[in-house]
Predict the 3D structure of the following.
Amino acid sequence: MNGNMKTQESLKTKFKPRVDDTAVIVAGMGRCGTTLLHDALVDYGFKETAFLNTFGECFIYRYGKVYKIHYYLPPDKFHYNVKLIYMFGNPYDIAISATKNINDWGKLHHAHLGSDLFVENKELYYKDTLQLNRHFDMWYRQQGFSFLSIKYETLYEYKTRQMLNQYLGIVLKLPPYRKRESSWENHPHRQDIISTYRELHAKIECAENVKIWEKKV
């Protein structure tokens, strides 16, 4: 048995499944792994629920279920058995990904993030209409509840997956890694995107790849 197999067996022994006594919320900017993680949790055994527009829509988070939300404003607190994972990522790539089919679903995506600045076509390249900078500032800090934050670009790294499993108390299987279809580095609007999201990109570059945030006292 090689080292990786031994590690997996050790994790299976150490962490028992907690589907029946845990509710999981996957929050994040969107276009940075929230759906991937949500679907992996459903495949594990958590029951899928309706997408949440705001945290106020759900009075009680039921154990054994997984919820997904993009809203920019975190709640004040959670019951201790609610596990929340906050996903964020490179805003250059998020802007490109969000621009695809934006006239079809962009207004709704803006609303999910709490933004009323939707404009059709490629306005995202020139203005942070999704208000991603606000989103990150509101979330990437200590809250009235403990949570785990993950930088999407590091989701498949060993340390990130280990901390994710430790936080959830399970061994979660992710789908095979898939590289983004497009990259900001060779994008025709590269300079516009950099100019718009430079400040946020710098913040995210400095952020920890994966971090467990303790509850604010």
